[in-house]
Amino acid sequence: MTTWQPDLTAYNGPRYLAIADALSDDIRQQRVAPGTRLPTHRDLAFRLGVTVGTVTRAYAEAERRGLIGGEVGRGTFVRDDVRRRTEMPLDREAKVKAGEFIDLSVNFPTPRANDSLLAKALMDIAHRPGITSLLDYHHHVGLPRHRAAGAEWLGFQRYHVAPDRVIVTAGGQHAMTAALGAITEPGDVVLAESLTYPGLRRLADFLRIRLHGIHMDEEGVDPDAFEQACMTMRPKAFYCVANMHNPTGMIFSVARRRALAEIARKYGVKIVEDDVYGFLLGTRDIPPLSAFAPELGHYFTSVSKSMAPGLRVGYLAIPEGALDSFAQVVRSTTWMAAPLTAEIATDWVEDGTGMDLAEAHRIEAIARQRLARRILGNTQFCSDEASYHTWIKLPEPWTSDSFALEARMRGVGISPATIFALNRNSPNGVRLCLCAPADRHLLETALIRLAEILQDQPNSNFGIV
After folding, report:
1. Percent of the chain surpassing pLDDT 70
2. Taking Cα atoms as reference points, which of 85, 55, 93, 89 lies closest to residue 67?
3. Residue 84, CA distances (Å) to 21, 65, 407, 461, 463 in order
4. Where is the HTH gntR-type domain positioned along the sequence (predicted)?
5. What is the pLDDT of residues 417-433, one digit of tens each?
6. Closest C-alpha to 284, from 261, 254, 314
7. How far is CA 395 from CA 59, 407, 424, in A?
C-alpha cells in the first residue's frame, strides 16, 4: 500500500473534490503510478485530518472519473489504463470545459418539483402553530406523523407495515447504513448481486464487512448460486435491488423473489432490500422480495428519485420488535433525519403531491427509454421500459472499459461494468443514466454520440492494459 498523501493547500471547494482533483493531478504528473494501491479510507482520513466519509466520497468521485478501481478484499488501486484517462486531447478537453460534456454516469432524476410547489409547502408549514418544534431534537426514529407517512409511502410501493416499524432516515444511503450497521459486525459476509450498487461497496469498506457477488440470469439472482453461498459462506445478510436493478434496470420475477425469500428463511439470512425505484412499477402488482419473508426483511426506499433528492428523506421498515438496535445506529450517524424536510415529504405524501411527482418521473423515464431504443437501434438492452437507467450489452471487440473511455473522449460520461462488479469476470456492458440530463435534447445528443461509437471499431491506442 502506498503512502500517498496529497497536498490540498492549493485546492478550493469541498474536501472530497479536492482529494479527487489532487489524485488526478498526481497521476497526470506521474507522482502516482498505474497499479498503485491507495491508502485505506481510515488511514488517509487520519493523515489528512478529515472524516472517513470525506475520503469515501473522494474515492467514489475518483472511481466515477475512471481513475481508480477496487476489488473486494484487496483494496483500491489506480487503474492500469489511467494515463489515457488523464491525458485527454486538448480539443476534446476544451469541449468538456465548454459545457458540451453530457454526464450519463449519475443516476439523477429529472427535476420535477418547481419553485411554486416548494413555496406552497413552506408557506403551509409556516402557518402552523408551534413550527419551531421542527428545529428541536426528536426521537431518532422520527416523529409519529412522519413515520405514519413513511408507512403510507411504503404501502404505495406495495410493502405494507405499521408505522411503529418505520424509521425515518436521511435518505436511502442512510437507510442502508442503518440496516447493515444494525445487523452486521466487522468480518460478516453479505451477499449481493454480482453487479451491484457501488454505494454498497463503499459502505462495506466503512463497516468492514465482506461482500460476495451472486450470479444473475434474466429473472434475477440465481437461486442455486444463492443457496450454495448460504450453505458455504454463512452470510449475515443479502442485499438486493429487485426493482429496476442497478445497474441492469431489470425486474426480478415474482417466482424468483419467492424462491430467494424461501432460501433466506431456510438459512436465516436477513434481507436488505433497496427499493428506491419501486415507484416506477406504476400499476404493476409486483410485491417486494421482503414481503415473502417479512420477519427477515429490512426494506427501504427514499423520496430522492420519486420526489426531490434535496429533501434527504428515506424510510426503513424493519421486523417487529427490532427498533432499539436500529435507533442506536441512526443516533450514531445523524441522530435523526431533519424534521423540517421530513415535514415537507409528509405533506406531499398526504396530499398526493408525492404520487403526482412520482408518476411524472415514471412517464418521463418511459419516454427516455423509448428515445434510447430508437437512437441506439439494434443494441442489446437489458432494462425495464420505465427504468431511470439502461444497460447495454456491447458488441465485440468493444470492452466496457474501452467503450466508456471512448465515450468520455467524445463528451459523454457512462459507467462501465467494472464499477459495479463484485467478482473478477464482469459482463461486457455499460450503464446509461437516461434521466440525468436536464432535457431530452441533451440526452438525444449524448445517445447519438454513443450510436456513432457503436458503429466504430475500438481505437487500438486506447486498449485496456
Report:
1. 93
2. 85
3. 16, 12, 13, 9, 9
4. 13-81
5. 989 999 877 889 999 99
6. 254
7. 30, 15, 20
